[in-house]
């Protein structure tokens, strides 16, 4: 069906209502009726293709707002989207995020065709360690329970005992019977876990690999101090992938979903978001009354997702866009993820 002028105008107005408050745009765009008209034919086509192909689009909070609000069916952090992938009955899952997330969707929904808009959308954490390297670490620490952060490849999950997210890592690690934990791949999150266990009085030895997030490892306490001096009453919100030094002086440290909730429910004149800029874009849509000062950083991998690539992945996915996994590896990785669902605190 060819979009008419009336349908394009209605779609542009729908997009404008959602995007008009977004200032944190990596391309410097101002969302007005004209810019919404430019993308309206594309969002209309993508939404039509979803219906025709029985597809669902999962969108991480860090991708562009026109993807999240223009064509996304579900938006959120890794844990929420993994739940949605697990529940999905769709024939096709388009994962607008990064490759490890699409792999997780395939692990949880093996009968679906899972596609990623850009196969180059990696992750500095997931790319920092291989399954073979995890096996070597397990030989060095045979008595350790292997805990992998969800920002890891399917082969790393297949070598791990339990998967965690930034929202449930503290509770899951605290409740594991093992005293020695081999944590992969995030060194900084492991340091924050170590500090939290000490704070809780839980005796754990945390051994980690050496990966870091290219977004979150760049924030500094000096940046926070400078911002507090300029903006009285500022609330600083950080992710557990930040350094322990940053986490120690932030007002709130939590997962993407937890940060979103904290800002929405906290009264403060200003917020400094020490995370990926996409979350600020979401908050500008969903909590336009909040004020954000500079500080967020762009994830180059998340920003590889575009409406054009989403459309192409729906129309005719190329072989490299289709997520395929060896069935034995998938089943082993599934046990790791299902263990997380079993151990995660119930909401």
From TrEMBL:
<protein>
    <recommendedName>
        <fullName>Quinolinate synthase</fullName>
        <ecNumber>2.5.1.72</ecNumber>
    </recommendedName>
</protein>
<keyword id="KW-0004">4Fe-4S</keyword>
<dbReference type="GO" id="GO:0005829">
    <property type="term" value="C:cytosol"/>
</dbReference>
<dbReference type="GO" id="GO:0051539">
    <property type="term" value="F:4 iron, 4 sulfur cluster binding"/>
</dbReference>
<dbReference type="GO" id="GO:0046872">
    <property type="term" value="F:metal ion binding"/>
</dbReference>
<dbReference type="GO" id="GO:0034628">
    <property type="term" value="P:'de novo' NAD+ biosynthetic process from L-aspartate"/>
</dbReference>
<keyword id="KW-0489">Methyltransferase</keyword>
<dbReference type="InterPro" id="IPR036094">
    <property type="entry name" value="NadA_sf"/>
</dbReference>
<comment type="pathway">
    <text>Cofactor biosynthesis; NAD(+) biosynthesis; quinolinate from iminoaspartate: step 1/1.</text>
</comment>
<dbReference type="GO" id="GO:0008168">
    <property type="term" value="F:methyltransferase activity"/>
</dbReference>
<dbReference type="InterPro" id="IPR003473">
    <property type="entry name" value="NadA"/>
</dbReference>
<dbReference type="GO" id="GO:0008987">
    <property type="term" value="F:quinolinate synthetase A activity"/>
</dbReference>
<dbReference type="GO" id="GO:0032259">
    <property type="term" value="P:methylation"/>
</dbReference>
<keyword id="KW-0479">Metal-binding</keyword>
<keyword id="KW-0411">Iron-sulfur</keyword>
<keyword id="KW-0408">Iron</keyword>
<keyword id="KW-0662">Pyridine nucleotide biosynthesis</keyword>
<dbReference type="Pfam" id="PF02445">
    <property type="entry name" value="NadA"/>
</dbReference>
<keyword id="KW-0808">Transferase</keyword>
């Amino acid at each position: 069906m060819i979009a008419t002028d009336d349908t394009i105008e209605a779609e542009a107005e729908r997009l404008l209502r959602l995007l008009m408050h977004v200032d944190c745009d990596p391309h410097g765009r101002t969302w007005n009726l004209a810019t919404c008209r430019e993308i309206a034919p594309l969002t209309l086509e993508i939404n039509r293709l979803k219906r025709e192909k029985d597809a669902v689009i999962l969108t991480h909070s860090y991708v562009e707002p026109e993807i999240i609000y223009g064509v996304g069916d579900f938006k959120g952090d890794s844990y929420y989207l993994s739940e949605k992938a697990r529940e999905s009955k769709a024939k096709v899952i388009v994962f607008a995020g990064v490759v490890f997330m699409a792999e997780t969707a395939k692990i949880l929904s093996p009968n679906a065709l899972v596609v990623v808009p850009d196969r180059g959308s990696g992750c500095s954490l997931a790319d920092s360690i291989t399954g073979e390297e995890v096996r070597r670490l397990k030989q060095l620490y045979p008595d350790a329970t292997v805990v992998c952060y969800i920002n890891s490849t399917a082969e790393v999950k297949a070598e791990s005992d339990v998967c965690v997210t930034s929202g449930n890592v503290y509770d899951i690690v605290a409740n594991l019977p093992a005293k020695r934990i081999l944590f992969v791949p995030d060194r900084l999150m492991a340091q924050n876990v170590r500090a939290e266990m000490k704070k809780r009085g839980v005796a754990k030895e945390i051994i980690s690999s050496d990966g870091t997030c290219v977004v979150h490892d760049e924030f500094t306490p000096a940046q926070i101090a400078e911002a507090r001096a300029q903006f009285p009453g500022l609330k600083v919100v950080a992710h557990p992938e930040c350094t322990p030094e940053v986490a120690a002086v932030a007002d709130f440290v939590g997962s993407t979903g937890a940060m979103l909730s904290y800002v929405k429910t906290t009264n403060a004149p200003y917020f400094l978001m020490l995370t990926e800029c996409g979350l600020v874009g979401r908050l500008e849509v969903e909590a336009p009354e909040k004020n954000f000062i500079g500080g967020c950083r762009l994830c180059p991998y998340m920003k590889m997702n575009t409406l054009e690539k989403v459309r192409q992945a729906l129309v005719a996915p190329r072989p490299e866009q289709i997520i395929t996994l060896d069935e034995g590896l998938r089943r082993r990785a599934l046990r790791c993820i299902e263990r997380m669902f079993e151990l995660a605190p119930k909401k």
